[in-house]
């Protein structure tokens, strides 16, 4: 039996291992967790990442050529193979089942002091609760790895949320000077109230042209802010086609290559540089509707508390659509039937190349209700802090191990 007297093994060093598969989500989550553990919980954190160039996009002060450096209170190490000997930390986080170096695993087994956690991808599916915290004993060594699943219910590990995030968000929203500084930093004046501001961070998407047509045709001016990335060729193609009369619309097209600005009808698109991770939140706070993707921006849109549209990371076997449904079932449950239908319809069309244009008016009409839902949802989720849960769990495991060691001596 574990008792409160069993000595707790509180970690004060943490190693996080991140293998960047593609895009920015893997390193985005690891970098956020690393900073939170260092800043809010006083841990000495080493972040091992195999792709420093991707990391440097999120943290521009990083030098992608350095094997070892300190960035914002975190020691960042280039994860190279062969992996040089390193003393394992008390808390070892393997992100998204990346394979830890064999010699590091060997050192953990020899030392018997590390809690080894595999931080999994985020999903709203029911099975997650059953797998959260499950042990996975090593086949050949006296070591156990534990699964830790982020999620949306109390039966899961929760979500990453910095303690001061809501305060910073509200301060930004209540301060015209901060907002103006934000717009000026991109060379823009703050748009008027009548303009609908939309951020659009997405993968290649067949539904884009239909969405642009709808906004261009709409009665309300739309300013769409597109961070630099995979969708840009499609954005350029859209305005080229409209300009050459290839679309069924005959809008005048404005293109300003210096400002990276495009317009037609009631739509203006501005391409933004990829900003450092903390500033991406400001973009979400500054907009009325946010299109997000993958995992980390999807969570940040939920903390921004505005209506949002999620493009899920596509998987070959189509399992991503099940994940999308599972999230919609939770998020959409308390919505009125028209709002729920609008959200489901738009998200499905956005993820399946469908006709977003027919659904957009209903989504836009439901914005008031979606704003309230977003606030209630964020309040609920904020109760379940991933970093705290992770530390509590690692302490639980540490205690259990201390108890087992004591038991084996007697
Ligand atoms: O980049 P992504 O598509 O990452 C994806 C997913 O995480 C997916 O689950 C994973 O399997 C795949 O990568 C390999 O989207 P995501 O998760 O939103 O990550 C983007 C990160 O980039 C996020 O931390 C926010 C950050 N970001 C900036 O820092 N600056 C920017 O200007 C923008 C647009 C994003």
Q: Can you give keywords for this protein?
A:
410 residues; disordered N terminus; 15 strands; Rossmann fold; 2 domains; 18% strand; seven-stranded mixed sheet; eight-stranded mixed sheet; alpha/beta; binds 2'-deoxy-thymidine-beta-L-rhamnose
Order of strands in the sheet with the most strands?
Answer: 3-4-2-1-5-6-8-7
* DSSP strand content: 15-25%
By CATH, the topology of the largest domain is: Rossmann fold
3D shape: elongated
H/E series:
EHEHEEEHEHEEHHEHEHEEEHEHEHHHHH
SS-derived structural category = alpha/beta
CATH architecture term of the largest domain: 3-Layer(aba) Sandwich
Helix content: 40-55%
| Number of separate domains | 2
Ranges where pLDDT stays below 50 over 5 or more residues in a row are 1-8
CATH class of the largest domain: Alpha Beta
Number of strands: 15
Distinct small molecules bound, one entry per kind: 2'-deoxy-thymidine-beta-L-rhamnose
Q: What can be said about the biggest beta sheet?
A: 8 strands, mixed
Q: Can you count the helices?
A: 15
C-alpha Rg (nearest Å): 23 Å
Provide the residue-averaged pLDDT.
95
Give the termini distance in whole angstroms.
15 Å
